[in-house]
Amino acid sequence: MMQDNEKLHNGTIQRKLKYERMISRSLGANPDDLKDPIKISIPRYVLCGQGKDAHFEFEVKITVLDETWTVFRRYSRFREMHKTLKLKYTELAALEFPPKKLFGNKDERVVAERRSRLEKYLRDFFSMMLQSATSPLHINKVGLTLSKHTICEFSPFFKKGVFDYSSHGTG
């Protein structure tokens, strides 16, 4: 009995927090924002490390309604996220993921092309997840409660401080 009351109480608190977020959001975000609720870009990449440990990290800038944050990620983290999430959301297998390169992955032209393709992948990824009935990001489920928190809960890839080894951190 006590456990049921506790669950009921927690459920009420969660609904109240969701409602409060919607109310506070309604001042800065409006339903028109739901047409394109997530904006994502990879504005640049940086070379990190030296010698054998040298690698590129891509700056991923995410804007969800009225919240913006940035994370830096290596290509291997993108690939890891794609492989993990497509097991759970099989429709993601249809997305074109930039292939792994055995040679030339430090060449400026190759990295510039990879940046462009990763950016397209992320945009297509979110477009698909916002429309997928099985996704917790489905726009009819989350609406104006979509937030940085929702995205980070969906995948730690988008969370600041996770996978951050470089001096660039996450701005």
From TrEMBL:
PX domain boundaries: 36-150
A Gene Ontology molecular function term of the record: phosphatidylinositol binding
InterPro entries per the UniProt record, alphabetical: PX_dom, PX_dom_sf
Top-level lineage group: Eukaryota
SUPFAM superfamilies hit by this protein: PX domain
Cited Pfam families: PX
Name of the protein in question: PX domain-containing protein
Organism of this sequence: Saimiri boliviensis boliviensis
Lineage: Eukaryota, Metazoa, Chordata, Craniata, Vertebrata
